[in-house]
Automatic annotation (TrEMBL):
Topology of the protein relative to the lipid bilayer: Multi-pass membrane protein
Alphabetized GO MF terms: transmembrane transporter activity
Span of domain Major facilitator superfamily (MFS) profile: 42-127
Protein source organism: Phytophthora nicotianae P1569
Record-given protein name: Major facilitator superfamily (MFS) profile domain-containing protein
PROSITE patterns in alphabetical order: MFS (PS50850)
Transmembrane recorded as keyword: yes
Residues spanning the membrane: 96-117
Pfam families from the UniProt entry: Sugar_tr
Keywords, alphabetical: Membrane, Transmembrane, Transmembrane helix
InterPro entries tied to this protein: MFS_dom (IPR020846), MFS_sugar_transport-like (IPR005828), MFS_trans_sf (IPR036259)
UniProt xrefs under SUPFAM superfamilies: MFS general substrate transporter
Gene3D superfamilies recorded: MFS general substrate transporter like domains (1.20.1250.20)
Length: 127
């Protein structure tokens, strides 16, 4: 018993012929290594904060150690000319430098320690 093969016209009557989309051969895209990275606003904010931090101690420290106001000869002269010496009478340059260094070290230790106290007692009570 032979099965008759369907004719092409009979197949198109029952099964719709749909063209398949052509698959385009794409090459994998590799990011261009020469494209510069665009900075975001977070980068600019972090740079700004890092540039403002030295103002906490840096400006005051440089003013205390400024040679115009910390010149041993001008401070030893009697009478001391106005606006030439900020050291108190009787202090040496080494004592003055130690006082400035202790002030900076105290600021660093205080910044490290105060967090525990403020967490324990509260921020407003510590201030």
């Amino acid at each position: 018993m032979e099965i008759p093969s369907p004719s092409s016209s009979s197949i198109s009557d029952f099964i719709p012929v749909v063209p398949t989309p052509k698959v385009l051969a794409t090459t994998p895209t590799v990011p261009d290594v020469h494209v510069p990275i665009r900075p975001r606003w977070v980068l600019y904010a972090n740079v700004l904060v890092s540039l403002l931090q030295p103002l906490q101690y840096g400006w005051s420290t440089t003013q205390l150690n400024l040679t115009t106001f910390n010149n041993q000869e001008e401070c030893d002269a009697r009478p001391v000319a106005p606006h030439t010496c900020l050291m108190f009478p009787g202090h040496t340059k080494a004592q003055w430098t130690m006082a400035v260094s202790a002030w900076i070290l105290g600021g660093m230790i205080g910044a490290l320690v105060i967090g525990r106290f403020s967490n324990k007692f509260g921020r407003k009570r510590i201030m």
